[in-house]
Amino acid sequence: MSKFNCFANGVGDNMIINYASSHRNTQLLRVEMNPPSNFMPTPDQDVLDVKPLRTLAPMFPAPLGVNTFNQSTTPPLIFVTPAGQFQEGFGAWSNSAAKSFFAFGSKDACGGKADTFDGHNAGGGKVASFGYMDDLGSQNAAGDDQDCAGVQPAAHWTSDMSANANGPIDAIPISDYRVAQPNVISLDDDDDDDNYVANQTSASGRKIKRPSRLSGYNMSDGLSSDSYNSMTTKRPKPSHKKASVNNELAVVPPSGDPREIVEAVLMTFEALRRRHLQMDEAQETSKRADLKAGAIMMASNLRANSGKRIGVVPGVEIGDIFYFRMELCVIGLHAPSMAGIDYMTTKFGDEDDSVAICIVAAGGYENNDDDTDVLVYSGSGENLPVFLVNDIDDDKGPHHFTYITQVKHLKPLSSMKPLQGCRCLGVCLPGDANCCCAQHNGGNLPYGSSGLLVCRKPMVYECGESCQCSYNCRNKVTQKGVRIHFEVFKTGNRGWGLRSWDPIRAGSFLCEYVGEVIDDGRCDLNNHEDDYMFQTLCPGEKTLKWNYGPELIGEQSTNISADTFEPLPIKISAKKMGNVSRFMNHSCAPNVFWQPVQFDHEDDGHPHIMFFALKHIPPMTELTYDYGDIGTDSGGVPRAKTCLCGSSNCRGFFI
Ligand SMILES: C[S@@+](CC[C@H](N)C(=O)[O-])C[C@H]1O[C@@H](n2cnc3c(N)ncnc32)[C@H](O)[C@@H]1O
To answer: Fewer Cβ within 10 Å of end Cβ, the chain: N or C?
Structure first.
């Protein structure tokens, strides 16, 4: 009996392969499900003698807040095969070829060595067992499944099979191994000695506060509203909604057989998608016909297997192929349209805990065991490894620091009150005058439908905890964390630097500057002891003018100039603790800029400092931002370091 379904999606999100029940022997599937903090630190400081990987699979980082699994209207082939591993791209990066950076000594509880390619066993190699696969293959029970017996014509195609049709659940709750995970979630927010600022917990059985990105799911329903809400298309017209009560609009499955239902759902989805594509092409637009079709199917309740279950998904067979993530959604195979792990809550004794039920492995998280029978998966969300490469000299790595993923406030903020929340149901819609978050941003949502920042502003207000909108709201971008495969590399003359394996689109979110927030209101600008101090000093014009030129389209100019620029009181030191951002060097011709972003509190003097791409950035290009200009001292001497950025317009110094 298959206890969960697994798809490997390789080549930069371009391919999905199903591992589920691919063999006839009983097999243990091992899964490591990490919570979604950015980079997972491990305690060891191994700096590895690795070379940069030049064979990059072109991939735009998935914009956040929407399902951008594939931006093009011609989708990649997604197929289900028992074959196992993906062939190229990230999936092809062998464990031995390169090792991850992770590192920089956090005191985690696991004591594990970061000896894997992508952190699968950063928790000391512990993985969770979610169940055994079926001797007879995953589909053997499908036809007998009584839970699907209620399958009826279109209006009632959905079925709820939250119970396991194949007997008792043989699954291990996540809390059983969470103790070994370094970046786990906890309610404990205090400032103890632990190096992780990320919340932590133990496996004591204490109820775990889920990270917000996970809690966005509707856990009780296989096809949650979030799946629907993640679509960026307009909501289907009311006439579509009648489909569920008007079977003329849909293909009625000829019987209650789960296989026929799944096929009918997929056929209807595909027909709708083709038609939308046809209409889009006639209008020379390319508007994700798959998402439109999916939205209509969901709104019309034309779907199969709406309830979550552990094990067989009735009507789905090994060898089935899919071209779109939405197909997985509408047949109840994998509800989240973006996240890698679909999971449900189930009882373990008196406790509720999460169990992975379906995995779309994104390819960036290699099956470390190189074994098609075993999947060690750590890739739901942005728990990406960071690579460390030195092509230049014998330097084994940067000085020790503690890897953290959230800023650490040394003093309490003046207002920890959450921002006022919007009442948008589902997602915030552009142009909605009733959305207070849009109003807070000057009337428009700051991000486009693909998660790209529209223009630089004094402050961006994202939707936060007190908003009623869902996890997939487009106004939640930076808080979802990093989606880019970073590499820390040795530069020729500026120490270590940062670059990305992925091409990055202008306006994409890269990462947050995290470290210790120093709020003494004073900062000695002549004190260069802390090379890792971030301050909001006035950057050059290129950064200041990252705007669309409102005056060009008859709008009032919102440009900030060097004269009107006002620094914020926030200062962040990443000397002792930080993340990849601390490796971004200065350039007078930068390709990255910082942007203050608020989403969790009201203190505008202490926003999050988020980095965005100033322009399209090819893979392996050094990522740099403008540290800012503090001019000269009274004697005319630049109060700064000599700049070695090498750009033609180099100012010669930087802070
Ligand atoms: C935030 S750290 C950047 C990471 C640093 N390169 C490292 O090896 O850890 C800032 C320091 O990097 C070096 N640096 C950054 N940009 C530079 C530039 N344009 N020219 C010369 N040195 C630079 C300076 O030593 C600076 O104080």
So the answer is: C
